[in-house]
Design goal:
alpha/beta, 5 helices, extended, two-stranded antiparallel sheet, 120 residues
Length: 120
Amino acid sequence: MKKTLYDKLWHDHLVKPLGDGFDLLYIDRHLVHEVTSPQAFEGLKLSNRKIWNVKSIVAVPDHNVPTTNRLNGIEDKISRTQVEALNDNCKTFGLMLILKILDKVLFMLLGQSKVFFCLV
């Protein structure tokens, strides 16, 4: 039986089966955005944890950045606050942050290849 892409990815990242339908996976790339990451960073701070492999993480604000009139900045206060929080958290934890995106397609491509190593 042919394996799906999902099956192949799962197999390639499987560390070991844990039983009862659970598996331990190794995630070699983590893409972070500005909307839900503040909660994760807050959890790290509260538990006094550091990030194990900062080189495996790339942060890209992709939900709240304007697609037109970028020279005006982010006008919506909540959106601006989320992007600023991502910037601050990346500085605090030493993560790669890509702020200047040519277009919305870039973030989607980042997840499918190792192109991001060439962008910095």
